[in-house]
Amino acid sequence: MLTEERFAKILSILERTGSVTVQQLMAELNTSESTIRRDLTALDANGQLTKVHGGAILKNAAYSTIDDEVIHRKEQNREAKEIIAKYAAGLIKPGDFVYIDAGTTTEFMIDYITEKQAILVTNAITHAKRLAEKGCKVYILGGEFKAVTEAIVGEEAVETLEKYNFTKGFFGTNGISIQKGFSTPELREAMVKKKSMENCRECYVLADSSKFNQISSVTFAPFESATIITTDMKQEAFQKCQNILNL
Q1: Model confidence pLDDT, tens digit, residues 229-245
Q2: Residue from 190, 183, 192 nearest 212 by CA
Q3: Comma-separated ranges of CATH 3.40.50.1360 domains in the chain
């Protein structure tokens, strides 16, 4: 196959899937790893794709470096968030020790949590207040308050998490990428997400379809580390992933 033909096929695959690994391209193009890597380097240099570790993503894959304020995010994709949150809340069972991450979709969970025989821990002041008002037993992490996301973040929160071993955890994310995993714009918040996920037996990321093929500044967990609960997700590359529950 001529170089120009390979380039066209690689770009066609990316347009269809949003991201691709070197191994996938080797199989689809019946070409060696070294050739694929050279092709990706060349296409990246030409500005036609973005080369990442282990593969490539579309050049126009969105990168975000700043958090939107909670008040602006609450109404974005609200219907999808409600569906995701209701399903997630139903996963909490008697005796569970649950971590609930700050975020708008995780906050919607609170409306649907009925299990009072579970213990809940959160890094979101609003979440803690609403859960307590519902009669749930809830603990809140200590640390620095981040007003934009209404979350407790930083090293003190991470130290608090050291002693906890959760049965389940429910997390928000700004971006989901097969290569770059789950990401968020700010390091202090990423630290808390990372530690809490590491201390969960079962991890669930709640994300509407707009979060896919998005990348933020700091990766806090690899793509395979959690079950993703979503809805109306049509991107072909993600539809084949076994850790995605598309409601």
Answers
A1: 999 887 777 877 899 99
A2: 183
A3: 70-246
- Phi first, then psi, for residue 57 (nearest 5°) are -130, 165
pLDDT above 90 for 161: yes
| pTM beyond 0.70, yes or no | yes
E strand residue ranges, the chain? 19-21, 49-52, 55-58, 62-64, 97-100, 119-122, 137-140, 144-146, 151-153, 166-171, 175-177, 181-184, 200-206, 214-216, 218-221, 227-230, 244-246
Place of tokens 């050291």: 162
List the one residue out of 137, 123, 50, 125 whose CA is nearest residue 92.
137
CATH, domain range 70-246: 3.40.50.1360
CATH class of the 3-60 domain in this structure: mainly alpha
Say which residue the tokens 């996938």 belong to. Answer: 24
Q: What 8-state DSSP symbol labels residue 118?
A: S
CB within 8 A of 4, min separation 6: which ones? none
